[in-house]
Amino acid sequence: MRELVIVISDLYLEPGPDHAAAAAVEGPAALPSLEHIARFGESRALTEGWRTWIARWLGLPQYADQTPASVAAAAAQVPAARALWLARPLHLVAGLTSLHVDRRSLLRLERAEADELAAGFAETFRGSGLALHPLEGGEFLLSGPADAAPSITTEPARLLLQPLAEALPAGEGGAALRRLGAELEMWLHAHPLNARRLRRGAVPISTLWVWGGGAPAVARSAASGQIAAAAFGSDAYVRGLWRIAGGEAAAMPVDWAAVLGDRRAQRALAVVEVAELLHAHPSWQLADAVAEIDRRLLSSSLAALCRGELGRLVMVANDRSLSLRAADRWRLWRRRRAGLEGLA
Question: Mean pLDDT throughout 315-341?
């Protein structure tokens, strides 16, 4: 394989004067592969975010400036000429004076749950001109009138970086989306699905966070058949982008070594979430989840790089890319940075 990119899509670190020090103490002994990549690789800031970077990496720069929802719609059946947004199930944590999010706030729903909410939305919001469309990865597309006013929205994974009130939709169409958000919270508060989730030990769905849209779906590329790049993960944007390019994204495989040994793809992309690991392991904290990614994905990928089976390994998180080639390991003058400090 010529190149492998591993994206941790919800790993954002709080900025500030103590940022690097805080990152260094997040399990410093548990991330040997990340530390190796950060020490010897090339680090670059991704000022436009990882999705725009991936569109260009895949060779589709014409889609880099499209909204995430417009691209995600390529992998879904939605009406043409409708304004589209992504809607991510979100669990809000109650504080003393306000609601906030934590690293377990991002949710992905089973298809039966998503279908139930979509059907309930159609009934509750009948006549609003809005419709909810379940996506394969446990998210939703929200469609509305094509003449919807533009708005400024925040990616849900970034909600840890600012107070929730400051991340609410703004701009000309912001008021309408804020009203919808309040109505979604009231609708979901007493929803029977949440009662069932609580009984089985899952956190309730507080709202659907609407973001990344306002424009209609983009046209698909003329490409056909399998592209020379494989993609793995649940992210709706990546699934849509690969469909545009003429391919199909797949779920994360259990056996990552099989992906590294597959010679059919010249390049591969894996998108993972800390939140999914935290939901699967209730006792884990951030350091445990990143250590699992280090052990299961980064370690074997780094070994393949050292054996010459992989040309370049790129890790993307916190709006930064760390790029490593096998020959870079001789840069012995570079200092070691502990834990997540290399992503600061």
Answer: 84
Which two three-digit tokens encode residue 71? 């691209």
The phi and psi torsions of 89 (rounded to 5 degrees) equal: -60, 135
Which CA distances in Å does 109 have to 92, 182, 203, 233? 16, 21, 11, 14
The answer to whether 140 and 114 are in contact (CB under 8 A) is: yes
The whole-angstrom separation of Cα 120 and Cα 115 is: 9
Rounded Cα distance, 89 and 108, in Å: 7
- Closest to 167 (Cα-Cα) out of 155, 177, 179, 181: 155
320-325 vs 42-45, strand pairing mode:
antiparallel
Query: Which one-letter amino acid corresponds to residue 262?
Result: D
User: How far, in Å, CA of 232 to CA of 272, rounded?
Assistant: 8
How far is residue 291's CA from residue 276's CA, in Å, rounded to a whole number?
14
Cα dist. 65→147, 152, 289 in Å?
20, 15, 31
Strands 3-8 and 312-317: parallel
Find, among 211, 218, 239, 219, the residue nearest to 85 by Cα: 211
Q: How far is CA 182 from the centre of its chain?
A: 24
Nearest alpha-carbon partner for 144 in 84, 96, 219: 84
Q: What is d(CA 242, CA 229) in angstroms, rounded to the nearest whole number?
A: 9
- pLDDT band for position 19 (cuts 50, 70, 90): very low
User: What phi and psi, each to the nearest 5 degrees, are found at residue 236?
Assistant: -65, -40
The rounded distance, in Å, linking the Cα atoms of 299 and 34 is 8
- Residue-by-residue DSSP string for 101-125: --TT-B----HHHHHHHHHHHHHHT
- The alpha-carbon radius of gyration of the chain (Å, integer) is 20
Model confidence pLDDT, tens digit, residues 33-78: 999 999 999 999 999 999 999 999 999 999 999 999 999 999 888 8
Residue 45 to residue 320: CA distance in whole angstroms: 4
